């Protein structure tokens, strides 16, 4: 077991007990001061270590022992955010089934739905939406989910959240709508699929009388 994964010997022992299924030993360690939400030097929680290692037994048992899916502490992200970026939806699905909040924010003011954006984690987006995640939330820079999707060139997510009702006219702290990032990449650098998605967004905007800030295609 890699000692770098743990912030203290007690945390390492707790993880080992959870991974082996020795819940009696795990509870003894917690009673003796072991913290199921402790962070290592890389600001990763024990739940995060379990996800990193793909250890479902440790993960499930840590949740049973009281590890919090929304714990932030000094870390940038919560376990929910880490789960949202992973292609294996097991982690996120398991925490949601246990009643984990969809609205916990990281140090950037982003909920797990921000983290789930992207072509490889669409299943996580669906899980969060099905669990009632707020689509109108904004981060510390006043960016919407559409701003974030545009900034990472996740064009499918841009259209998805526009159609779900995110305000296309919303501006971030610098006064930009999502279109500033969405049309930033020159058209000739886009793959055919991205061009098609961009054209769908243009059409969506025009149908609603919203000016297209199409600086990239010119």
UniProtKB/TrEMBL annotation:
Keyword Acyltransferase: no
SUPFAM superfamilies for this protein: Ankyrin repeat
SMART domains on file: ANK (SM00248)
Entries under PROSITE patterns matching the protein: ANK_REP_REGION, ANK_REPEAT
InterPro entries reported for this sequence: Ankyrin_rpt (IPR002110), Ankyrin_rpt-contain_sf (IPR036770)
ANK repeat start and end residues: 108-140
Short name of any one Pfam family annotated for the protein: Ank_2
Keywords: ANK repeat, Repeat
Protein name, entry field: Ankyrin repeat domain-containing protein
Organism: Ottowia cancrivicina
């Amino acid at each position: 077991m890699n000692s770098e994964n743990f912030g203290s010997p007690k945390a390492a022992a707790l993880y080992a007990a959870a991974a082996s299924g020795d819940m009696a030993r795990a509870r003894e360690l917690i009673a003796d001061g072991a913290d199921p939400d402790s962070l290592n030097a890389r600001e990763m929680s024990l739940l995060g270590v379990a996800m990193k290692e793909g250890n479902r037994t440790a993960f499930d048992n840590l949740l049973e022992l009281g590890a919090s899916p929304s714990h932030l502490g000094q870390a940038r992200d919560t376990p929910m955010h880490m789960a949202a970026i992973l292609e294996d939806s097991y982690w996120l699905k398991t925490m949601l089934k246990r009643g984990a909040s969809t609205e916990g924010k990281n140090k950037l003011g982003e909920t797990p739905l921000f983290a789930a954006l992207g072509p490889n984690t669409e299943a996580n987006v669906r899980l969060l939406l099905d669990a009632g995640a707020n689509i109108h939330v904004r981060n510390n820079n006043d960016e919407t989910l559409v701003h974030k999707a545009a900034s990472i060139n996740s064009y499918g997510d841009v259209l998805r959240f526009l159609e779900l009702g995110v305000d296309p006219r919303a501006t971030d702290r610098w006064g930009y709508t999502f279109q500033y990032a969405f049309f930033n990449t020159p058209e000739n650098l886009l793959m055919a699929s991205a061009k098609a998605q961009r054209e769908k967004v243009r059409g969506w905007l025009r149908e609603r009388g919203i000016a297209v800030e199409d600086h990239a295609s010119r």
